[in-house]
UniProtKB/TrEMBL annotation:
This is F-box/LRR-repeat protein 15-like leucin rich repeat domain-containing protein. PANTHER family: MITOCHONDRIAL ATP SYNTHASE COUPLING FACTOR B, SCF E3 UBIQUITIN LIGASE COMPLEX F-BOX PROTEIN POF2. SMART domains: LRR_CC. It comes from Ataeniobius toweri. Residues 6-97 form the F-box/LRR-repeat protein 15-like leucin rich repeat domain. Pfam families: DUF7885. Coiled coil: none annotated. Keywords: Ubl conjugation pathway. InterPro entries: F-box_LRR-repeat, FBXL15_LRR, Leu-rich_rpt_Cys-con_subtyp, LRR_dom_sf. The keyword Transcription does not apply.
Length: 127
């Protein structure tokens, strides 16, 4: 199925979402301006590497709590999503503050980068 005019999509909190799902979104929903993928543990840099080159109109992306996302995804966003205004990478433990700083300096329209607790291991207490 193709949704060439779809502008906003939320797949947040769906553990069934995989890299193949994200790649398909990129390929079939090229008009997206907002993409919510928070709390999707099956998403990695590999899936975003296949999707992001097709999402040139993207202005908002939420990847918070996606622990398999790394600095590589931020480099892809810098390269392909030049219209980004907001990025949420809160609680992404494999992202460095150095790359966040670079992202902020490279994207001309970027207004907000939410990056609480990046690069931090899960602090969940267990018995």
């Amino acid at each position: 199925m193709h949704f060439p005019d779809l502008q906003r999509l939320s797949l947040a909190m769906l553990p069934e979402i995989t890299d193949a799902s994200v790649a398909s979104v990129g390929w079939h929903c090229r008009s997206l301006t907002s993409l919510e993928l928070s709390h999707c543990p099956g998403i990695t840099d590999r899936g975003l590497a296949q999707a992001v080159p097709h999402l040139h109109r993207l202005q908002h992306i939420n990847l918070s709590c996606c622990n398999n996302i790394t600095d590589r995804t931020l480099y892809l966003l810098m390269q392909h999503c030049r219209c980004l205004k907001t990025v949420d990478i809160s609680r992404c433990k494999n992202i460095s503050i150095t790359t966040v700083d670079l992202l902020q300096s490279q994207l001309p329209f970027l207004e907000n980068v939410h990056h609480k607790l990046i690069g931090v291991a899960d602090l969940t207490l267990t018995d």
